[in-house]
Amino acid sequence: MARYLVSGGAGYVGSHVVLALLDRGDEVVVLDNLSTGHRAAVPAQVTLCEVDLANPRAVDEVLAGWKFDAVFHMAALSLVGESMKEPLRYIRTNVGNSINLAEAAIKANVKRFVFSSTAAIFGVPRSTPIPENAAAEPVNPYGESKLMVEQALAWAESAHGLRSACLRYFNAAGADPKGRAGEDHTPETHLIPRAILATLGRETPVTVFGTDYDTPDGTAVRDYVHVTDLAAAHLAVLPRLEEGSVAYNIGNGRGYSVKEVIASLERVSGRHVPHTLGERREGDPPALVAGSERLRGETGWVPRLDALDDIVKTAWAWHLANPDGYATRQRQAA
What we know:
- The chain has one domain (3-333): NAD(P)-binding Rossmann-like Domain (Rossmann fold, 3-Layer(aba) Sandwich), CATH 3.40.50.
- 39% of the residues lie in helices and 17% in strands.
- The chain has helices at 12-23, 56-65, 80-85, 87-107, 141-160, 191-199, 227-236, 258-269, 293-299, 308-321, 326-333; strands at residues 3-7, 27-31, 47-49, 70-73, 112-118, 163-169, 171-173, 206-209, 221-222, 224-226, 246-250, 256-257, 275-278, 287-288.
- Residues 5-251 form the NAD-dependent epimerase/dehydratase domain.
- Belongs to the NAD(P)-dependent epimerase/dehydratase family.
């Protein structure tokens, strides 16, 4: 049985990676300070180490306490707008904490490190879909911080033999089809859960930012990848790390507009989605779609839940079952 460490394993993507590992019979240890993650998102059979990555001594103790076959690193600050207001906090946290974890892995003789990067490293794309060899030109501190970690990991391989997989996420969406995990952020900024919460009367109407883009219906287009497919990609890259470091885009390879997302939720829920039309947000590109041919060709990964209605359906089901997010589960367990 293999054993893996998942930092940020109590968060949205991290909890789904934990489930993917458990489903194939692996042992998992979660490292999370629960600042944005949820204790209720960690399955009972998983060891939770409530540790802050900013504390290198505590991180070293976790890595020294078990023999890990690889580290999955997903713990980070991730709000683009917030990063514009607090750039130094984002760079200090995302870069410094990642270095602490990578150094602990090196000391513990862990050779494989899977890093949660972002499409934000590409900035405003020059072409769509964005190829995996596109130039990295981040336009916000969040994307910059992730790129800095990618660069640091390249040096870690050169100097210490730590092989890394840098996975550039596009828009993670949906929830575990079995209902075991879902999306619960405070505040919620992602379109699909925001629209669901508005439909359920738990949030104000969702705003459609911009209706005059050069897209088929005038609204911004994004590549939504189901979070379960995203988690599967993390496992798929592990064998590639036997040969050396890699970097991949993870997306469906096709985009859906804001209006298409709203229409999908109305089909799935049978309800009207409250929304208003607003001006464009500064810095929002018309379309962000992933080119992930290298990932598919080198690992055999393919998205299984790539239809928009399937993505939305799982998210809707999770929110119906957990109207207050993980707080619902905490009350049920009390």
